[in-house]
Amino acid sequence: MGNTEIISNEVRSQVLIDALPYIQKYNNKIVVVKYGGNAMTNEMLKDAVMSDIVLLTCVGVKVVLVHGGGPEINDMLKRVGIESKFINGLRYTDEATVDIVKMVLAGKVNKELVSHLISHKGKAIGMCGIDGNMLTAHKIQGDVDLGYVGEIVNVNTKPILDTLNAGYVPVISTVACDEDGQTYNINADTAASCIAAELKAENLILMTDIAGLLKDKDDDSTLIPTVQVSDVPFMKRQGIISGGMIPKIDCCVEAVRRGVKKTSIIDGRKPHSILIELLSNEGIGTQFV
Question: Is 250 exposed, middle or buried (0-12, 13-18, 19+ CB in 10 A)?
Answer without folding.
Answer: middle
